[in-house]
Amino acid sequence: MSAVITSDEHSHDRPRGITRWLYATNHKDIGLMYLLFGLTMFLVGGLLAMLIRMELFQPGMHIMQPELYNQIITVHGLVMVFAALMPVTAGLANYMIPIMIGAPDMALPRLNNWGFWLLPPAAILLVMPWVLELFGIGGGTIDTGWTMYAPLSVQSGMGMDFALFAVFLLGVSSTMASINIIVTIFNMRAPGMTMLRVPLFAWSWLITALLLIAVFPALIAGAVMLLTDRHFGTHFFNAAGGGDPILWEHLFWFFGHPEVYILLLPTAGILPHIFSTFARKPIFGYKAQVYSFCVTGFLSIIVWAHHMFTSGMPASANIYFMFSTMAISVPVAVMFFCWIATIWRGSMTFETPMLFALGYVVLFGIGGLTGLVLSDAVADQQYHNSYFLVAHFHFALFGGPVMGVIAAAYYYLPKITGRMYSERLGKWHFWLTIIGFNVTFLPQFFLGIAGMPRRIPDYALQFSNLNMLSSIGAFVLGASQLLFVINVIKTSIGHGAKADAQVWDGASGLEFTLSSPPPYHSFAKADGNR
Amino acid sequence: MGDVQRGYYTPDQSPYPIILAASLFLMALGAVLEVNGHDVGSWFLLAGGASLIFVLFGWFGKVIGESRRGLYFAKEDRSFRMGMAWLIASEVVFFASLFGVLFYERNIAVPWLASLDPNYTPWLHFTSAWPTFGPAGKPFVAMKPWGIPALNTAILLSSGATVTWAHWGLRKNKPLWTKVGLFLTVALGIIFLFMQVHEFHDAYTHLGLTLKSGVYGATFFILTGFHGLHVTFGVIMLTVVFSRALKGHFTADNHFAFEAVSWYWHFVDIVWLLLFVFVYWL
After folding, report:
1. pLDDT tens per residue, range B43-66
2. Which of A307, A312, B140, B229 supports an S-S bond with B208, CB 3.0-4.6 Å?
3. Which residues, in sequence order, are CB contacts of A199 under 8 Å at separation 6+?
């Protein structure tokens, strides 16, 4: 199959000025906006994390009151999940999927733009209550933790309403992006690209998008009911009228558990590409990985209540959710073995994307195995809501998806900008990240087992040393991300050697048949646009 | 495979998506301020709503214009169809969640509350019956299935038939069937909505059944209310399609908008059948 590289068409010159971005319909422009927005919010969420670790540096109250602390941990979680990670994976999808499958653009370009521009308003709604508080309106932003458990969320202040409406906007945005990605993959593939030739990244996003459509509406429904409970006197989550606060937990986790896989799968899809490139071997077990994406996606929908082992469910429910959760480790292990088999006996080199991808396997491995520990309904009585859990999901979400999107960013940065990034800065970034990360989160496993609860601004004296260590690690981790920002900026403004179309010797795929940076309109037939 | 050779229509820059996002932002902001007792919120709601209507006219007008100019072929048509199908899929999950809430409250939460020590039940003599009265045992009259709701079922089912008849008209080149069929569908939809409003009014004024009437009232109004909202969307879309049919926009093999709306209408129809069985009847 030969790829057609067309130059910009006369009738579709690259638009100029600010409206290029505001009114964008080009998948590469929209993809870039997603990526930049995600990176910005990653720094915002990271700043909040630094504030959390500053407060926890020593026991006692230091830089903030508990009310503000609660708001900061909540917004940190919401921002990192919804405004940083999801937009970055969606940005990669927008930029890469059309050029991976040989499509001229996303299937529904205007819808694509709408999906993106719903995100900044949602982010504004999350932080706006802090601004309003300065003018004496309301008591700050959402403070319930990102899980918004009833009845706390029913009683909480005006910031909760802002967050609920942010959830509505995020839901519409995700649904539109998902519809677009599904339609693009089903309808826009180049001739000859059958479903079992679609690159794994596109496959993983197909499953992700299906998951989003299958679960996000449940959160929207729950958020509507929470809103009516708060302001219109309904009793969905209130036992005084026959309702049940546990119902909120079911609705939230029916969305919230698959959400973990929504964050994870796109990066699990990018990993085999990176391993294959830097091990100079074809991807091992393409079909096995496709099937494990499907099975993981399906299982993730039916295991939600393992987040609720201590909520007082019947023993039979606990047992069901325990075993079904453990079953997820089977398809995930298939992915792990395929990744290892791909690099097995390859002629490996260790450029920055490869380092982050290998870091992903180790850190997410720890995240996954500690998840297996937590899924034991009996043992969970001990771990639940402790710092063990905090450490676990940071290994699962930073160790997996964040490492994965950073690997993907380095991998595709030369393709997107046409310049090689600084390998030296990249290696510094990797080693400081992996050291900082482990120093931050490994101690938290021990803190959790020793009994330190999560979501508190102060702690007992015996936890002091490990907390200080964790905070120091966090500062290293936070500061080292600035190296990444510097690297991205330097590459984008034209530092570094010019990248050719192939970029990496071992790379394969349609995206590497296009020049770096790719033409504004790729894979478009000459008469296709008019 | 002619469409593959031809390429794909990729639209020019468009101002509508970002204006739509901004109008939803204004409406969200307005709603938050409004429910928290800040009257300035209604101005935001008004501004957001007005720009929303502007966008709907502009965006759909643009797409209809492109369709009329013959810019869409089989591949574009397939994208639209798939897009609509997956949008309806997400709506299916939304309503499935609401039904899930109904089943959870009715079959798990209420029996569990009733099984507690009498000192801990929500109110004295709380029993596991459905409808649950309350809160605090305050009585109300539950909805009866065999009055207006049964009539509404007949109305919506007939409207499903009339929209299918209109579709046959398109397929068999009988424009009159299409126009009359669509007119009847819109009329039946409006009658349904009037009956629904009447029923809600009756519930509030005579039956004592409100949003605040415990989980029965809450689940009743959230399910029927959201269904009614979707019927309203459906009627608006049907009206647009009806006016386009009057102008002769649709042909036997090019009528995506018509089909999308009829899919939506059948979806709303099926949700009502489930509502009738599980909310009103059983």
Report:
1. 999 999 999 999 999 999 999 999
2. B140
3. A100, A101, A273, A509
Please give the DSSP secondary-structure letter assigned to residue B280. Answer: I
When scoring A34, A226, A234 by the number of chain B Cβ atoms within 10 A, the one with the most, hence best to mutate, is: A234
SS3 at position B144: coil
Distance (Å) from the C-alpha of residue A109 to the closest C-alpha of chain B?
A: 7
Q: What is the pLDDT of residues B97-152, one digit of tens each?
A: 999 999 999 999 999 999 988 888 888 888 888 888 878 778 888 888 899 999 99
Q: What is the pTM of this model?
A: 0.95
Q: Which of residues 197-256 of B touch A (CB under 8 A)?
A: 210-219, 221-222
Cβ contact B222–A247 (<8 Å): no
The class of domain B74-281 in CATH terms is: mainly alpha
Torsion of CA A419, A424, A427, A432, to 10 degrees: -120
pLDDT digit string, tens, across residues A493-516: 999 999 999 999 999 999 999 999
**pLDDT (0 to 100) of residue A528:** 44
Q: By CA distance, what is B74's nearest residue in A?
A: A187
Number of Cβ atoms within 10 Å of the Cβ of A268: 28
From residue A270, alpha-carbon distances to A21, A411, B51 in Å are 26, 10, 40
Q: What angle do CA A475, A83, A509 make, to 5 degrees?
A: 95
* ipTM score over 0.85, yes or no: yes
> What are the extents of the domains in chain B?
1-72, 74-281
Q: How far is B175 from chain A (nearest CA, A)?
A: 30
Minimal Cα–Cα distance from B86 to chain A, Å?
6
> A183–B83: do the CB atoms touch at under 8 Å?
yes
3-state secondary structure A108-121: CHHHHHHHHHCHHH
Distance from CA of B117 to the nearest CA of A (A): 14
Q: Would the CB atoms of A242 and B135 count as touching at under 8 Å?
A: yes
Asked, as a colleague might, if the bond just before A353 is cis with ω within 30 of 0, I would say: no
* Domain made up of B1-72: CATH architecture: Orthogonal Bundle (1.10)
Residue B172 forms contact with A (CB below 8 Å): no
Q: How far is CA B75 from CA A111, A120, A183, A187, in A?
A: 17, 32, 11, 7
Q: What is the mean pLDDT of residues A371-392?
A: 95
Q: Is the pLDDT of residue A489 over 90?
A: yes
A98, containing H or E segment: helix A86-101
Whether pLDDT at A276 is above 90: yes
Residue A2 has pLDDT above 50, yes or no: no
